[in-house]
Amino acid sequence: MMVFFALVRRELGGVFKSWVGYVVMAVVIWQVGWSLLDLISRLSGTSVVVPLPQLFYQSLYFWMTLLTTAPLITMRSFASERASGTYEALMTTPVGDVQVVLAKFAGALAFYLLTWMPLVAVLAVLRQVAHEPAFLDPYTTSGAFLGIFLIGSLYLSMGCLASALTRSQMVAAILSFMGGLGLWGISLGSAGDRPAIGRWGPLLDHVSVVRQMTDFAAGVIDSRHVVFLVGGVVFFLFLTTRVVESRRWK
Amino acid sequence: MDATPIIEVIDLVKQYPGRTALDRLNFVVGRGEVVGFLGPNGAGKSTTMRILSGFLPATRGTARVAGFDVFHEAEEVRRRIGYMPENNPLHLDMRVREYLRFRARLKGLGGRRRRQRVDAVLQQCGLTEVQNRIIGQLSKGYRQRVGLADALVHEPDLIILDEPTIGLDPHQIRAVRALIKELGQKHTVFLSTHILSEVEMTCSRVIIIHQGRILAADTTQNLERDLALDGQVVAEMAASVDAVVEAFRDFPELEALDVAVVDDDFVRVSFTPRNGTDLRTPIYEQVVQQGWRLRELTRSRHSLEDIFIHLTKNRKEEG
Known about the structure:
The complex is a heterodimer. By secondary structure, chain A is mainly α. Chain A is built from 13 helices and no strands. Chain A has one domain. Chain A is globular and about 60 Å long. The model of chain A has no long low-confidence stretch (mean pLDDT 84). Chain B is α/β, with parallel strands linked by helices. A six-stranded mixed sheet of chain B has the order 6-7-8-3-9-10, with helices on both faces. Chain B has a four-stranded antiparallel sheet with strand order 2-1-4-5, covered by helices on one side. Chain B is elongated. The relative contact order of chain B is 0.13. The A-B interface holds A 2-3, 6-7, 9-10, 13-14, 17-18, 84-96, 247-250 and B 50, 53-57, 71, 75, 78-79, 81, 83, 85-87, 89-94, 102-103, 105-108, 110, 150.
């Protein structure tokens, strides 16, 4: 465990010692802030019957944040180490490949969760302003954060795989962004919060991250969504491990 | 002391698409040796070191470190080696002490022992004064020391250094070589270089590799002797040319003689021996016997560079 935590700490330290960490945090704070203004203007015009978090997670702001930050956070993971040569120094210590992959993922996830902390402040402000605790009940809020955690994990695991495939951070970010965009695009095919129609409708519905997030934000924790997202994370981390191990087959 | 060789390489082959980087390499490094792995760029030095450190697999053959197979028992091998890859990659955003602590953790050192070892290598590598500086702000010489400190921190059985002085200025090279020489007193060191003088200065034995094959492996003295490259003796004595030729006419083990007048009294004589025999003592005795005055008696030594050029030239001619 000592090695695992040393690696996670190094990952986090690396993010904060580079411009990427601060840019990502700035992007998230800007998008969360902007969405707050948008919500306030919408709420002051008409009354709504859906929980507040649900409104937020249906907005483009949330998805823009997720789609742009996950590739930025994970692009460094393996690609930068391979480019600088520190990867060779790392992989010749008595640390297992799986441990390295899990630590890099955990480091990225820890930073990702940290970047979402301003949202807690936004929700607190909204609770004060709206004077309506029902808008921000603990179930919907915790559901929403579970969604942020699980969907974020999926996107980050995809980013780790992209980063392991190349030594260029730029290529890693583009690959990861395209993958994330593709998954989000499929979700749009399922019409987001409405049940999808047609032959592929049920499947699209099942893999729709937008739909999953909508459910989580409404306080509905559907085990199918959890299984799908956790399975996705395991799948992408498994592929990442295989890519890392592949140097030993070449 | 454990009798198992620290490095054992048997018929090692590494093929990349369209090219053979290592072609049936065989060599052994014993414990306590400082061995130089010498060859031009692209000879296969780094590939061999990467295989030994468990970073790359071999296509065929076996490599063992301290008796452990580098592929099947990679983790055991990594525990026993301190490896500094080519170009000494470091996390430039970290501070020296912070980096060494991080690396010590990765190598399984915990608590008090980690603190002790980090302090010890900081001192050993002359880094105590810069321990709180950011690595990226250090000179290349200091960074190289950080790399060496990292390789040493877990007290490995074997230290593998890939081109440890590359890119350094002459002062830094001298400092790093001195450090390596010091390490050699306590550790087994296997270092690669394409700088011939480096091996001569720091290593007890040399393995010469060229185009993925080992051309020679021995001490520099033995290589000189075996290749019959050395042994020419130059002497300056007060005698006439004819007298010198007469005195050394039937000299045993003498292949050739070359005499030239230096000034009024002295001649300069070059003796070429058979089979690299050292002729200095018999020459001295003969000069004394003749009652001549002697003002110089030198045996010319061929450098490793000569050996290397000789070996690689032969290889090219064979090819």
